[in-house]
Write a structure and sequence with these properties.
The complex is a heterodimer of chains A (387) and B (257).
Chain A: H1 3-9, H2 15-32, H3 58-70, H4 86-100, E1 112-116, E2 121-129, E3 133-138, E4 152-156, E5 160-164, H5 172-183, H6 187-190, H7 201-204, H8 207-215, H9 235-248, H10 265-272, H11 276-285, H12 316-319, H13 322-330, H14 332-335, H15 358-370
Antiparallel strand pairs in A: 1-2, 1-5, 2-3, 3-4
Helix pairs in contact in A: 2-3, 4-9, 8-9, 11-15, 13-15
Chain B: H1 13-18, E1 36-38, E2 44-53, E3 61-62, H2 68-71, E4 76-77, E5 93-96, E6 101-103, E7 110-115, E8 118-120, E9 123-127, E10 131-135, E11 142-147, E12 155-158, E13 163-167, E14 172-177, E15 185-191, E16 196-198, E17 204-210, E18 213-221, E19 225-233, E20 238-240, E21 243-246
Parallel strand pairs in B: 1-6, 2-20, 2-21, 7-10, 9-15
Antiparallel strand pairs in B: 2-17, 3-4, 5-16, 5-18, 7-8, 10-13, 11-12, 11-14, 14-15, 18-19
Classes of the chains: A alpha+beta (387), B mainly beta (257).
The complex binds copper (II) ion.
Chain lengths: 387, 257
């Protein structure tokens, strides 16, 4: 008999191909119901199959079959290998470090996502849940929904197909409870005491500063009652985290050109508009903007309790990205809902101090912060605050 | 050309038109069984006095440590708990919680002012959907920060002598603060029916033009919490409902989520 005839009698076509298919079928059957091979056989109890039925789903069985079939000697064919881009590697590595130090225990890294029945996807935070509906604050504009970032909308629970909750910030509910119960604050108000949300952090902070901060944390928010610990991260891990924040937001890493601090930038603005920086400073210091009323500026501190002070503005040029500063100034609630920083630049205000659109006023304050003259953050002599 | 900066050629006329339209677009407001207002003939009324029972703590003084030129140098008495010598409680809000038909909402502007670095009044009630004016009568910047869960929250600086206006879509109790002057606090209660009243210095309140019927009456006070009572209103008659509120024991129950 010829080979193919023998194979045919056994129900096979080709030696290797069919063996492979048979092996695959057998593993699949084994994983689906491990003891099925005892069926109809007479065996002593001690000889019976003992592998338990894990009740794996079809997808899980397929995943395991793939792994088992991949376990063979020699190199795996290229086409079977999972290839990652440099960006993906950065994200995996960043996530690993986040997990290792349990950053999510304190910090929130993402926001809530609602998938509605009609295909609309909403990004933001659930503020309040009721029996048949929930109140959702949008963190991003949504054209198909016709609502803007910052708005709170009511969504019927029946409209929601799937909800994916934000990751991290596990400690927050305890901090909020404390300020509600002991100080009698409303929960929404108590949110300001929770560790900063790191969603889109890469858009906000300069990577050099992030790295330094991870190596040696400094107090930025005097009102917080929990502090960032010094983890004494190995430089590699601090780098991984820094890169992670940048890559997640498709920001440049490690080097980013910040034009605002380079020679010629302010000179050009002054040329276009004589007295540009001086006018920006007038706006900064005017009684109706008065940044220093709340913000620390180097060694100059505001009136009132330290726990009520806002972050040191002399750090801004090393810490923050200029584009972020401008967006922040135009509408702080859009970036960090609930922040104590108010929206100041609305259409038509401060025309006597710095005429222009809110956009232009925010640009000027940003330029000033990136070029803050020494005398604005080093206390000289007797010049104290008004009254 | 007031809004155009002499130094920049660009002008943003579109932005000018778009301001604050978004707050009016209540497309997803799905509150159930809206209140219907109309004429009430021979309605009854509810009145009473709200008192605080138990120990009354002495009035807290709020330290004025900023902008003393405008806000003054003296500490400001807190309005969080105002109790008379006769234990009568001011600024408690009494409202009917289960009424779907009755008198019309009263018209007229509702406003909260910031004057001498205090919110005036301390407690404000407003029908939902009506516009609220938020004023600043001082000569310095105050910010208006609303801590709402249902209505879109805001935090906006308002310069001296200027104002903002906002519409609130959902009934809710909202705390409003100024973060520049941390002692400044006020409360806004958005109502879905017009049957509400705030107690005066003598703890007295009155709700009138109530159609005869059985209702749930709720009292809320920012420091003493809320409680309810049932009331029967008869046509043309006044029902007296007094409330005794007590300071809750603190730190007993823990909320868990
Ligand atoms: Cu104020």
């Amino acid at each position: 008999m010829k080979e193919h005839e023998i194979l045919h009698e056994l129900g096979l076509k080709h030696p290797t191909e069919n063996v492979a298919a048979t092996r695959r079928a057998w593993i699949e059957a084994k994983l689906t119901d491990p003891r099925q091979f005892d069926e109809g056989k007479y065996k002593k109890p001690s000889d019976r199959l003992i592998m338990p039925n894990f009740r794996l789903t079809e997808d899980e069985v397929e995943a395991l079959v793939t792994v088992l079939l991949g376990m063979r000697e020699g190199e795996m064919p290229e086409s079977y290998r999972f290839k990652t881009t440099e960006e993906q590697d950065s994200i995996y590595e960043g996530k690993r470090v986040v997990r290792k130090y349990n950053c999510t225990g304190c910090h929130q890294f993402s926001i809530d996502t609602l998938y509605l029945n009609d295909g609309i996807v909403l990004k933001g935070m659930v503020k309040l849940e009721e029996d048949e509906s929930l109140f959702f604050q949008l963190w991003e504009d949504n054209d198909s929904f016709g609502r803007k970032a910052g708005e709170t909308v009511q969504i019927e629970t029946a409209q929601i197909k799937e909800r994916v909750n934000a990751e991290g910030g596990d400690i927050s509910s305890f901090i909020i409870d404390y300020h509600v119960e002991v100080e009698g604050r409303v929960p929404e108000e108590a949110k300001v005491f929770t560790p900063p949300v790191l969603y889109k952090e890469g858009k906000k902070v300069q990577s050099k500063w992030v790295f330094d901060f991870l190596e040696q944390p400094v107090g930025l928010r005097p009102w917080l009652d929990v502090r960032m610990p010094t983890f004494t991260l190995p430089a590699e891990e601090a780098t991984s985290l820094t890169r992670y924040f940048s890559v997640l937001e498709s920001e440049e890493y490690p080097y980013e050109f910040i034009k605002e601090t380079k020679s010629g930038y302010i000179a050009k603005k002054e040329e276009e508009c004589p007295g540009y920086l001086a006018d920006a400073r007038k706006l900064f210091e005017s009684k109706d903007v008065n940044c220093a009323s709340c913000h620390v500026r180097g060694s100059i501190t505001p009136d009132g309790e330290p726990s009520e002070w806002a972050p040191d503005l002399s750090l801004a040029k090393e810490r923050l990205k200029p584009d972020w500063i401008k967006r922040w100034l135009l509408d702080p609630q859009l970036i960090q809902p609930g922040t104590k920083m108010p929206k100041l630049f609305r259409e038509g205000v401060f025309q006597d101090i710095f005429p222009g659109e809110p956009e232009e006023q925010a640009e000027a304050i940003k330029d000033l912060l990136m070029n803050l003259p020494d005398e604005m953050f080093v206390e000289d002599d007797a010049e104290t605050d008004d009254e | 050309m007031r809004y155009i900066n002499k130094c920049f050629a660009k002008s943003f006329l579109i932005a000018f038109v778009m301001v604050s339209l978004s707050f009016l677009a209540g497309t997803n407001n799905r509150t159930f069984a809206d209140y219907v207002g109309g004429d009430v003939s021979n309605g009854g009324s509810i009145s009473g006095v709200i008192k605080m029972v138990g120990d009354v703590p002495s009035a807290k003084m709020l330290n004025v440590d900023k902008d003393q030129g405008t806000c003054g140098h003296d500490a400001i008495p807190s309005e969080a708990l105002i109790v008379s010598h006769g234990s009568e409680l001011k600024n408690a809000v009494v409202s009917i919680t289960n009424i779907s038909k009755g008198k019309k909402f009263s018209e007229g502007k509702v406003a909260i002012d910031q004057k001498g670095c205090i919110f005036v009044p301390h407690v404000t009630l407003i029908p939902k959907g009506q516009s609220l004016d938020l004023l600043n009568s001082d000569d310095i910047m105050h910010n208006l920060h609303s801590y709402s869960m249902k209505n879109t929250a805001f935090n906006e600086g308002v310069t001296g002598g200027n104002a903002l206006s906002r519409i609130f879509e959902y009934p809710e109790t909202i705390k409003i603060t100024c973060d520049v002057h941390t002692w400044m606090t006020s409360w806004l209660i958005v109502q879905d029916n017009p049957y509400y009243s705030t107690s005066n210095e003598t703890g007295a309140y009155k709700i009138d033009n109530v159609p005869a019927g059985d209702y749930t009456l709720q009292v809320w006070h920012e420091s003493l919490g809320k409680t309810t009572k049932q009331v029967s209103v008869k046509a043309g008659e006044n029902s007296v409902v007094n409330f005794d509120l007590e300071m809750k024991a603190q730190g007993k129950k823990r909320r868990r989520r």
